[in-house]
Design goal:
The chain has helices spanning about 10-15, 20-35, 35-40, 45-60, 65-80, 110-115, 140-145, 290-295, 355-365, 370-385, and strands at about 135-140, 150-160, 175, 185-190, 200, 210, 225-235, 245, 260-270, 275, 280-290, 295-300, 305-310, 320-325, 340-345. By secondary structure, it is an alpha+beta fold. The radius of gyration is 38 Å and the shape is elongated. Strands 10-11-15-14 form a four-stranded mixed sheet. It folds into three domains: about 5-115, Helix Hairpins (Orthogonal Bundle); about 125-165 and about 220-270, HSP40/DNAj peptide-binding domain, CATH 2.60.260.20; about 275-385, Urease metallochaperone UreE, N-terminal domain (HSP40/DNAj peptide-binding domain, Sandwich), CATH 2.60.260. Helices cover about 25% and strands about 25% of the residues. It has ten helices and 15 strands.
């Protein structure tokens, strides 16, 4: 801290004297967001702080100016003279904030605030405001997600007041020009500021008009809450998280402005029979021991109904059988998926004496080729014991 306790530009930005250009910019961005009128509601003290923040950054970001400033700052330490944030430019100190009336400010912060707050600091959006977007959720079954469907749902939302046709003024009257901003929707800061500050007019809230006699139905808002029933087509192939847009079905805009949109987020319900992987669907199907041994045809469920599946002779547990084109249709490109049937061989828990004899006979008459995995394991086990 310099003699006298006054703040330097480094103190204003909250950085060290050796701060890099990147550190300076990060500190300035944080303070500019903190003290901008859109964040503070036009607080006068915050505007004054923002002026000094901008002056500090404009000086320190330029190598030549920063060098001159550092030399002046060093001289103040040697002489012991007070040094405030504005002293490097000859401005008088005022509680750490200097007067900028004689300071030539040439940095362009308009683009920065446009990026930061979505609009230009000067020349804000005027006229009626568009309606806000809304979001709703639609739950569909896995089968509906595969085939497509239509869903209806009730949605509480704001709609234009029919009594005043959305103007907010009582029937027979009309809004008049705002006396504070003269219809501009925004007001500018006082002369002599570091740069002209523009903010939404607090009287008309940016509309440029005020209502002398509010509508008795909507109390001057131009809107009322109403429950609507909407219907939306769910295309085939959707998945959880898919967002569908209904243009113009959001909240209504002010008179002369477009309505917002409604975004419907799809949620696909889980299913006990099927599991989805991309556009494929996986289904687990149990078959009997005899079906696995002898082969045959079994009936399996699909997303589109029932189908018959051929089981090859000697099918093993965990064998995957593919049913072409029985999966999900492509939603955003690609190809139609398949149904993958995972076969699970079920062994009978109880057998009769005759069945025991038959199975024993099957075992005794089977060749080594009938149980390749079993005999391979037996050979490996024998070698392991002998090693």
């Amino acid at each position: 801290m310099p003699p006298g306790g006054a703040k330097t530009f480094y103190d204003v930005l909250g950085v060290s004297k050796n701060a890099s250009q990147d550190d300076l910019r990060k500190a300035w961005l944080a303070l500019a967001r903190k003290y901008h009128p859109d964040k503070t509601g036009g607080h006068k003290g915050s505007e004054e702080k923002l002026k000094v923040v901008n002056e500090a950054y404009d000086t320190l970001k330029r190598p030549e100016k920063r060098k001159q400033y550092d030399e002046t700052l060093a001289a103040s330490f040697e002489t012991g003279s007070p040094f405030a944030a504005g002293a490097a430019h000859g401005g008088p100190s005022r509680s750490g904030f200097h007067s900028d009336e004689d300071y030539e400010f040439d940095a362009d912060y308009g683009d920065f605030f446009g990026d930061l707050f979505g609009q230009k600091a000067q020349g804000r959006q005027r006229g009626p405001r568009p309606g806000r977007d809304l979001e709703a959720q639609a739950s569909v079954s896995l089968k509906e997600a595969a085939t497509g469907t239509r869903k209806s749902f009730r949605l509480p939302s704001m709609v234009s007041c029919q009594t005043c046709s959305g103007s907010g003024a009582a029937p027979g009257t009309s809004p008049r020009q705002c006396p504070k901003c003269k219809g501009a929707g925004h007001i500018s800061g006082e002369r002599g500021s570091l740069f002209v500050m523009s903010q939404t007019c607090p009287l008309c809230r940016g509309r440029g008009e005020v209502i002398a006699t509010p509508c008795p139905t909507c109390e001057g808002s131009g809107f009322k809450t109403e429950t609507r029933t909407l219907s939306i087509a769910i295309p085939a192939g959707v998945r959880t998280g898919t967002r569908l847009r209904l243009a113009g079905q959001g909240e209504p805009g002010e008179p002369g402005a477009p309505n917002g949109d409604l975004f419907v987020v799809v949620k696909v319900e889980e299913n006990e029979l099927f599991r989805r992987e991309r556009n494929d669907v996986i289904c687990e199907v149990p078959i009997t021991f005899t079906q696995a041994v002898l082969g045959g045809t079994v009936e399996v469920p699909t997303l589109h109904g029932k189908a018959r599946l051929k089981i090859p002779t000697g099918t093993q547990t965990d064998t995957i059988l593919r049913m072409r084109g029985q999966g999900f249709p492509p939603f955003n490109g690609g190809h139609k998926g398949d149904q993958l049937v995972r076969v699970v061989v079920e062994i009978p828990r109880r057998v009769t004496q005759d069945q025991v004899v038959a199975i024993q006979n099957l075992h005794e008459t089977s060749s080594l080729d009938a149980y390749p995995k079993h005999h391979a394991f037996a050979d490996n086990l024998k070698r392991w014991r002998e090693s």
